[in-house]
Amino acid sequence: MYKNNFNIPNGYVIMTDVFNEFLIKNNIKDKIQKIVERCNIDDEIEIEQKAKEIAQIISNSYISDSIKEEIIKYYKKLNCRYVAVRSSSKNEDGKSHAWAGQLETFLNIDETNLIECVKKCWSSIFSPRAVSYRIKNNDTSDISVAVVVQEMIQSEVSGVAFSINPTNNNSNEIIIESALGLGEAIVSGKVTPDTYIIDKNKDNIKNKEIKIQKSKLIKINSNNKWINISDGKEQKLKDEMILKLSKLIKEIEKKYGFPVDVEWAIENKEIYILQCRPVTTVERDELVEKIKRKRKLEFLRFKEI
Q1: Is the dihedral of CA 70, 76, 81, 86 positive or negative?
Q2: Domains (ranges, CATH) in the chain?
């Protein structure tokens, strides 16, 4: 998307071979793989315990000084204090499977906790939900994960958008959800967003469902905090921006050639695309009851966006 001039926050990617090198140097790759393969899909308690065991193994392992130095070097080249740190598995987000919401994202991270968050992203591919999903879909093959480090967008409004209506597979409708503050509020399900339905062919707004938002997530000093708000009864995204965003979503879908699920944010009236992935069959089924979301992009070793 960056190469096609979509507005992506500046950043870089810690590629899957860095994670693999980490596993090999700590002699834990085969050990973790065997733990996953032996998990019983019908035993949630066992999966929970094994996931914690793997997380502890990764936490206790070391990242070499050379990799740490390279991670920090590229962080400093961004010339910004705060970044978003996102997990991106090479096995996730195909057109038939979706790992939305199963991997971790950390917001407003600086140099002091960047390395720790990279390890947490690596661990998240072995979370109970992710492990259960992999076993359920017979995907216990060698799994790897990249980490996307991007300039943090302090969004006034954020949300998700689908280039088709995932609840009924209507390819002539675009669905946009929006809430005030950082996008993690929607992704985590802690707020109920506004929903706007746009006619993709006529470029007009067909329907609006405005929800009351009592609080929003923002950065205060160096922390992410929830604050109460008084303007949460109003429409979160103005009509002009709804149509501007829907046009952008159509352009992204056209570029990829398949329906997309996009995370977006607005800061100082500028729209940023944070994540993009296919809308999958799995996801469509789940969204009939509750629209779910999350991520991703794919890249090379330490590659600047």
Answers
A1: negative
A2: 11-151 (3.30.1490.20), 157-304 (3.30.470.20)
